[in-house]
Each structure stands twice: as structure tokens, then as C-alpha cells.
Amino acid sequence: MNAVLVTGGAGYIGSHVAKALAQAGRPVVVLDNLSTGHRQAVRWSEFVEADMHDVSRVREVLRRHGITAVMHFAASLLVGESVLDPIGYYANNVCGTLAVLEAMVAESVRHFVFSSTAAVYGEPDTTPITETTIPRPINPYGETKLAVERALPHFERAYGVRAVRLRYFNAAGSDPDGELGEEHRPEVHLIPRAIEAALGGPPLEVFGRDYPTPDGTCLRDYVHVTDLADAHLRALAHLEQGGASRVFNLGIGEPFSVLDVIRAVERVSGRAVPYTESARRPGDPGVLYATSDRIRVELGWRPRFVDLDAIVGGAWAWRRAHPDGYR
Questions:
Q1: Tally of structural domains, the chain
Q2: What CATH number corresponds to the domain at position 242?
Q3: How far are the Cα atoms of 51, 97, 182 from residue 243, in angstroms, in the given order?
Q4: Is residue 194 part of a domain?
């Protein structure tokens, strides 16, 4: 069976997708430089420690393993950090992705599943966001992802690379089998930070209480990482069956506020989540959530984990079972 390369496959979402591919019987190769990923998360595939910017190395991996499709997760992904370091974000997210695409073109690999972001939409005029909403990113992170999205039709016209772009915001939860979870160093995502605060760590910092939302805090989609993995496999099957290049939003269609997440962690853990309030972070939209009607209709995707307490519960179980993460 044709092999799949997962760039960034030692990271949070990439590792869950690599496991799902292996469970579906696909040969998988993970390429990761381990700058933020974890070698221990690569358990169902061959692992290549390499940098995606190294075109000759990526070409050698594609050729040696008979790769026919690439799922691309290797990217920098923090909004606040992108505002402070746009050079680094353009270098990694745009130049790095172009290096992967250059290697694919050279080795005649024509299927590309791109992990994009709902941050490409910026501050949408209406919600929920649909794929026809005009992208207007308000931070460098969203701009870099949109730059790649805009390049892909040119690669298709010139080289025949067909691509599915998946736009989502907050991946959350953990592998239901308890084998994979979320660990960043330092941790910046809301749910694991709230869990850490509940376990006696530093109080959670809530950025902004003056957004035009019911409780004044940001509203976001939280999509279970296992559901995201399923969507990526469906996107790959679509391309392999001759489907056209497409863009799909991934969301459960219901946003939750920062305070909603805090209360969910408190319900699941039975512990208080101490928090402090700070000013808004530059580049953070107030409301960002998407409808996933298109992928539901065209690819049959249905998220299994739509209850916030269930999503938080998986993250809590992972943290309790792995107090030191992957270490």
C-alpha cells in the first residue's frame, strides 16, 4: 500500500494522525526535527529526524520509502509569538512548507493534505465561519498559513499537486486509548494550562475580559484531536480517489468561552482553577468558530467528541496518567 509522509508527526496533532493512519493499515513515515515534538510520540511508524527545510533530505525520504502523499503539520503555531517574531514564522511556515512542496514536485508526489488554521479568517464579519468567508488574518501566524494556501493552486496548475486545506482552530483532548496526549514546552494552550492550574501550578492567565461576547472572554471552537485525525484521513482518501483540491473548515459549530473551559476543568477535576485577568493579547480575535457543513456533506465527516466536558476529560486523564508528559 502507498506510504504517507507525516511532517511534524512527533507533535500533538501529527502524532495522532500518524497513529490513525497506521491503524488504517497505511505505511507511515514521520519526519520531524524534534524542536517541539516528542520522539516518544512516534510509536506506529518509521521515524526520520530531519528538518523540512532540507530539500535534498526530504527528497531522499520520499524516494526511499515510496511516499505517494504528504500530510504537513510541521509549523510554528502561536499567535502571540508570531506577533513578536514574524521573521521566524514566515521562515518556518512559508519557506519550510515551500521546501516540502519543492521536494514533492521533484519526486512526483502529487497528494498534499495541509494543516491550516481558522486564524486565516481574522475577525470575521459573521459567525459561524464558512469556507466562503473572505480570509483577513490579523496576525502573522494566520498570514503565513494563508500564504501557503494561496500558493497551492499555482503548484497544482504548474506541477499537478492536488491539495486539501483543513482550517481549524483549537485542537483539544487526547487519544482515547491514553497513548498520546498534549505536551508543549512551555505549555501555552488553554485546556492544559487550566489543568495545570487546577493541579497547583501557576494561576491561569486570562487574556481579555472586554471582548464583545457574553462573558467578555474569547469564544473558540474546540475540536477533539481524534476527530481531526479522522478528517485528515478522509481528506487523503478524497485526493487518492481523484477528488479535486478543496478547502474545508473543521469545527463542532458551537463555541466555548475561556470561562466555559475553566468551569469544565473544574467540573471534570473537582478542583478550583485559580486565574488572573490580563489585557488582550495582540492579534487575538474575539470570536472564532466555524461551521463544518461542507466536509460533513462531501466527505462524511462527523465529530464524535462534541461535549466540552468529554474533551476536557480526556486531557485531564492524560495529564493524571502522565504527570511528566512524555519524559
A1: 1
A2: 3.40.50.720
A3: 30, 22, 32
A4: no
Q: What is the pLDDT of residues 221-258, one digit of tens each?
A: 999 999 999 999 999 999 999 999 999 999 988 899 99
Pairing state of beta strands 275-278 and 219-220? Answer: unpaired
- Choose the catalytic residue: 141, 211, 222, 289: 141
User: Domain residues for 113?
Assistant: 3-169+223-249
Active site residue 141: yes
- The model's pLDDT over 105-123, given as tens digits with 9 standing for 90+, comes to 999 999 999 999 999 999 8
Instruction: Find, among 211, 196, 232, 231, the residue nearest to 324 by Cα.
Output: 196
Handedness of CA 35, 37, 43, 47 (dihedral sign): negative
Provide the grid cell at 146: 494563508
Cβ partners under 8 Å of residue 226, min gap 6: 16, 20, 173, 175, 176, 304, 305
Judge whether 165 lies within some domain. Answer: yes
> What confidence tens digit (pLDDT) does each residue in 279-321 have?
998 878 888 888 999 999 999 999 999 999 999 999 999 999 9
Q: Does a structural domain hold residue 204?
A: no
Cell digits of residue 113: 493534505
Chain-centroid distance of CA 207 in Å reads 21
Residue 294 lies in a domain: no
- Distance, in Å, from the CA atom of 66 to the CA atom of 279, rounded to the nearest integer, reads 50
CB atoms within 10 A of CB 232: 26
